[in-house]
C-alpha cells in the first residue's frame, strides 16, 4: 500500500492486505486481489477488492487507511456481477457500490457497508457507449483512493 501526505514522499507498506502469505486476511481464497477501493465511514476504513477468475468481490476492514486490513469476507452481489468495485458516499449519506466492465452496475450498501441492498440494484448505469462518463467514473474511483491516503 502506498501513502503520502504531500504526494512527493511516499511510504510503501508491504503486506497491508494479502490473500496468501504474510498479511493473509482472505481465508476463502488464495487468488491474487485486484482493483481495491477504500472508503471511510464511522471510524472504519473498508477495503473493497475483486478476485480474478471468479465473479467474487470482498471487503476487509481497518481502523487505519494504511492497514492492516483484516477479516475479509465475500460480498454477496445478488447478481450485481462485475469487477473493479468502487464505493462512494453521496450527499444523501447513503453508500453506493459500483462495479462492472463495459457497463457500470450500482446498488446501495446496507448500513454495515458489507451487504448489498438488493431492492436498489441497477444495471447499465453507465455503459461504454458513454465513454467520457465511464472514464469519469473510473477516474472518480482512483481519485477517491488517492485523496483518502493524502488525509493520513
Features:
152 residues; Tachylectin-2, Chain A; mainly beta; 4-stranded antiparallel sheet; 1 helix; 36% strand; 13% helix; globular; 10 strands
What's the topology here?
Elements (H helix, E strand, L loop, with lengths): L1 E2 L7 E2 L21 E8 L2 E8 L4 E7 L7 E6 L10 E4 L5 E6 L2 E6 L13 E6 L3 H20 L2
Antiparallel strand pairs: 1-2, 3-4, 4-5, 5-6, 7-8, 8-9, 9-10
Can you put this structure into words, describing what you see?
This protein has one helix and ten strands. It has 152 residues and is mainly beta. A hairpin with a 2-residue loop joins strand 3 (34-41) and strand 4. 26% of the residues are buried. Residues 132-152 have low confidence and may be disordered.
Give the spatial strand order of the biggest sheet.
Answer: 3-4-5-6
- The CATH superfamily is identified as Glycosyl hydrolase domain, family 43
Label the CATH architecture.
5 Propeller
Question: Rg from C-alpha positions?
Answer: 15 Å
Output the helix-strand order.
Answer: EEEEEEEEEEH
How helical, in percent, are the residues?
10-25%
CATH topology: Tachylectin-2, Chain A
* CATH domain class: Mainly Beta
What's the end-to-end separation, in Å?
13 Å
Number of helices: 1
- Mean pLDDT value: 79
Strand-pairing-aware structural class: mainly beta
Q: Please provide the count of β strands.
A: 10
Percent of sequence in beta strands: 35-45%
The quaternary organization reads as single chain
Amino acid at each position: 500500500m502506498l501513502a503520502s501526505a504531500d504526494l512527493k514522499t511516499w511510504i510503501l507498506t508491504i503486506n497491508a492486505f494479502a490473500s496468501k502469505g504474510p498479511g493473509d486476511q482472505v481465508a476463502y481464497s488464495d487468488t491474487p486481489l485486484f482493483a481495491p477501493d477504500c472508503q471511510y465511514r464511522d471510524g472504519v476504513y473498508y477495503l473493497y477488492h475483486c478476485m480474478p477468475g471468479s465473479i467474487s468481490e470482498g471487503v476487509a476492514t481497518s481502523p487505519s487507511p494504511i492497514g492492516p486490513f483484516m477479516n475479509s469476507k465475500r460480498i454477496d452481489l445478488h447478481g450485481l456481477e462485475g469487477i473493479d468495485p468502487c464505493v462512494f458516499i453521496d450527499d444523501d449519506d447513503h453508500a453506493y457500490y459500483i462495479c462492472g466492465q463495459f457497463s457500470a452496475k450500482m446498488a446501495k450498501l446496507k448500513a454495515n457497508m458489507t451487504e448489498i441492498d438488493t431492492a436498489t440494484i441497477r444495471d447499465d448505469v453507465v455503459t461504454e457507449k458513454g465513454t467520457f462518463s465511464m472514464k469519469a467514473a473510473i477516474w472518480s474511483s482512483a481519485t477517491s483512493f488517492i485523496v483518502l491516503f493524502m488525509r493520513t
